[in-house]
Amino acid sequence: MNINEMINENLIKVGLKAKTKEEAIKELSQLLYANNKIKNVKDFEKDVLARERQMSTVFEDGIVMPHAKSNSVNEASVAIGISKEGIDCNSVDGKKSRVFFVIAMPHNSNDLHVKTLSEITSKLLDDSFKQTLFSAKNKGEVYNLFNEKKKDTDKKRKDGRFLIGVTGCPVGVAHTYIAANALKKYAEEMGVDIKVETNGSVGVENSPTKSEIDKAQAIIIACDRQIDLDRFNGKRVIFAGTKEAINRPKKLIEKALNGDVPVYSSSGKRAYSNNDFSKEKTGLYKYLMNGVSYMIPFVVIGGLLIAISLAIGGKPTPEGLQIPEGSFWNQILNVGVVGFKLMIPILAGYIAYAIGDTPALAPGMIGGWIANDGSFYNAAAGTGFIGAIIAGFIVGYIVKWIKSWSFPKIIQPLVPIMIIPILGSLAIALLFIFVIGAPIASLMDSLVNMLTSLSSGSLVVIGIVIGLMQGFDMGGPFGKVAFMFSVGLIANGQTQFMGAQACAIPVAPLGMAIATFVGRKMKLFNEEELANGKAALAMGLVGISEGAIPFAASDPLAVIPANMIGSAVACVLGFLFGITNNVAHGGPIVAFLGAINNPLLALLAMLIGSLVTAFITIFMKKLISKKRKESVSAA
C-alpha cells in the first residue's frame, strides 16, 4: 500500500476551521471517523497527541505531520487539511503551519507509517509541489496533485561519483526519512549516485556493503544518535545532524565532493575541519543525554521497588524506616538498592561511551562507582550523580586521547579490549583518589562545620542552608551531609532539625511530578519525562529524593535551582511550624506512620515546597525554550 491508496477526496479538507494544532488534529480525526477509517475519535486523538508530546512533528515551511499507530484505526489512511490563514504551531522557523497530514495506522501495521511518512516527505521536498499544495482551492486539486506522476525532467545523468549517507533522529521517525530523502533528491539533481542508510524506529535499513563503503568518495553522517562508525575507518567523513541534512543537503553534498573532508579514524581523531554543520549535535549535551537515557530505567526500577517495600513493610525506628531482616519486603528492598547502586556507574559509563565508544564503557562505569563511593578517598559521602557526570566526561576524553596514540601492530588487537580499558580505569581511579578526593573530603568537613556553627543561630537561616543542600544534588554529598547532621542531633534529643529536613526531602521528586502534570499541555516535557514524573511521584511519597535525578541531569539549569528553592522553602516552613521527627527519614510516609509531631503542618510544608519547585521549573523551562527559539531564528 502506498500513499495514493490511503488518500481519497473524502479525506481532504481545504479551509480548516481550527485555530490550534490540537484543534486541527481533532478536526481531521473527525474526518477519518466519518469515513470509517477509525472507530473511536477520542482514543485516536489521545494516541496522536501522546506521540506528538514524545517529539513534535511540526516542520519548517508550514508542514505538520501528526501520526500514530492505534488500536482505534480500522484502515491505514491519511487525512489532509489546509489552513488558508495558517496556524501558529511553534515552528522552529517561526512560520505559521498551513498543511496538516494526520496519518492513521493500525497498531499491527509494522513499518507502514514510516514508509508513508517517507513518501509524503519525498513529495514535499519539491518546492513547486509544495507551493501548488498551499494554493489548492479545493480537495479535488489536492487529490490530483498527490496522484500526479513525478516528472523526471530534473534528473541528471549519473557521472560515476558515489556517496554514502547515514541518517537517524532520536525518535527514529520523521526527521530520519526527511533527511534521507533530502540527500537523495539533491544528489540526483547533481548527477551523483548516493546510498542512504536510515536508522529509524523499524531498525537499520539500506546499509551499505563493504564494497560500497570502499567505493564511496565520502560519507555523510547526518545523525543524532549512536551508530557504528568503525566501518568507516579510513574514509572521509562529514558529521552533521538531521536538521543540517534537511535544511542544507546541497552544501553537505558539495562539501563531500570537494575533498576538503577529514579522514575518520576509529583510533581517535574525529576532526571536523571547519565543518560548520556538525557543531549543533556533537556537544556535551548529546553525550550527557546518552548517559541519562541509559540511567533512567535503573532509577525507576530501584526507586519504585524501594518505595513499595518501605510503604508496605517499613516500620518507624530511631534509625529510620526499617524492614525486618529476612522478610519478603526486605528482599524486595535489596533488589531496589541494587538498582540505585548501579544507576550512577551506568550514567558515567554511557557518557564516556558516547565520547570514546566501546573502550570507554568499562572505565566510565568504574569511574562512576568510585565517584559515588566516598570510602575510596576518605570522604563521608560520595559525589553522587554530579561526580558521575564529571567522571564520565573525564574518562570519555581520556579514552579518546589514548585512542589517538600509535600502537605497535602486534598489540593493536588488544588495544580496545584490554589496554585502553585498563589505562582509562587506572587514570580515573587515580584522579579521584589522589587529586579530586582530598578536596571533596575537605569540603564535606567544611560543610559539617558550617552547619554546626549555624545551628545555634536563626532557624530561618539554617533552614535555608539545609534546604538548599538537600535540593542541590538529591541524595548526593551535599544532601547526605545535611541529612547525617540532622540524624546526629536526634541522638542528642534535638529532633526539630530532622523534622524540618523531612519536609525538604521529598520536594524535588514531588515537584517534578507536579511540573510534568501541569506542564504536559505546554509541551515542556517529552513522553519519557512524563512517565518519569509518575515514578517520581511514587518515590517522593516515601521520601526518595533520587527520583528527581533524571530531570536534574538532563536539564540542570532549569531543575536544580527549582529544587533548591523549593526544598529551602519546605525546610524553613518545617522549622517555623515546629515540626519534629524521631525517625531518620523524610517524606509523607513518615507523617502517615506517626513519626512526626504535627503531620498536617508537615504535609503542608512539603506541598508548598513542591509547588514552588514545580512552578519555578515550568517558568525556567519556558524561558530557556524561548531563548533557544530566538537563537535559532537569529541564526
TrEMBL record:
Species for this entry: Maledivibacter halophilus
InterPro entries assigned: Bacterial_PTS_Sugar_Transport (IPR050864), PTrfase/Anion_transptr (IPR016152), PTS_EIIA_type-2_dom (IPR002178), PTS_EIIB-like_sf (IPR036095), PTS_EIIB_2 (IPR013011), PTS_EIIB_2/3 (IPR003501), PTS_EIIC (IPR003352), PTS_EIIC_2 (IPR013014)
Span of domain PTS EIIA type-2: 5-149
GO MF: carbohydrate:proton symporter activity; kinase activity; protein-N(PI)-phosphohistidine-fructose phosphotransferase system transporter activity; protein-phosphocysteine-sugar phosphotransferase activity
GO cellular component terms, A-Z: cytoplasm; plasma membrane
Family matches, as PROSITE patterns: PTS_EIIA_TYPE_2 (PS51094), PTS_EIIB_TYPE_2 (PS51099), PTS_EIIC_TYPE_2 (PS51104)
Protein name: PTS system IIA component, Fru family (TC 4.A.2)/PTS system IIB component, Fru family (TC 4.A.2)/PTS system IIC component, Fru family (TC 4.A.2)
Origin superkingdom: Bacteria
Residue ranges constituting the PTS EIIC type-2 domain according to the UniProt record: 284-620
Family annotation (Pfam families): PTS_EIIA_2, PTS_EIIC, PTS_IIB
Keywords attached to this entry: Cell membrane, Kinase, Membrane, Phosphoprotein, Phosphotransferase system, Sugar transport, Transferase, Transmembrane, Transmembrane helix, Transport
Domain PTS EIIB type-2: 163-258
Annotated membrane topology: Multi-pass membrane protein
Entry's Gene Ontology BP terms: phosphoenolpyruvate-dependent sugar phosphotransferase system
Subcellular location as annotated: Cell inner membrane; Cytoplasm
Transmembrane segments: 294-312, 332-356, 376-402, 414-441, 447-468, 497-518, 557-580, 600-620
